[in-house]
Amino acid sequence: MSEKEIETPYLSEEVVLKKITPIHVLYAMSKVTAWQNFTHHPTCSRYENHYFKIGKIKLCVGCTNLYSGIALFLILYFSITSIKLNPIVLPLVFLYGCATAIIHSIIHPENKWFKSFLRFSLGFGLGAYLSIIIISPKWWLRAIFSIIFIGGVSLYRIMRVEKANLELCEECPLHIADPPCDPMKNTDIKVKKINEIVDERIEKIQKRKDKTLEIDIQKEDTREGNVEEKK
Fold first, then answer.
1. What are the tens digits of pLDDT across the range 136-150?
2. Which H or E run contains 59?
3. What's this model's pTM, rounded to 2 decimal places?
């Protein structure tokens, strides 16, 4: 993909802030940092297979399907008695989820919908594991299963490393362009600009208050002087 074909919002450092109110500032800040909090990948055309676009909202493909799979399994398991009473359902579904996670880590699929299927399946399996924790009869069993779950999630985060979601940026032609496309730096600059705008506004308001207070003091001194003269 050439530079001209790549669509990216990270070359412009412009910040749109129509009004400087708490709501408008929070909205502007959330728009700037939305890709970090909800998409988890830069929202440029090189990463279009890594996020869903629903109107103006963009969501991470992996996380959306993962949490959907967890939620759906929990709903089905605790709603359908026949599934709940079958003792082999939970281990089988959990193993299925683990198998899809292994497949995903080996082949690293680029197709958005195949990736969605694998991530949803993993979520389905994790839903089964959480169900095991919930229905375990002993508190110490729940504690052990919970520690294993937390340890697995922590290990996964370590394996992903901090910049794993920015891998395509390293080989992107815009990464070495002038100016370069740097999502993290661009976001930091925009956040800093919003903070500077807010600070300037607060400073102006404070100066206006100080000036008003000074005028009020002068008026009060003048009134007191006039009273003394009359005496």
1. 999 999 999 999 999
2. strand 57-60
3. 0.82
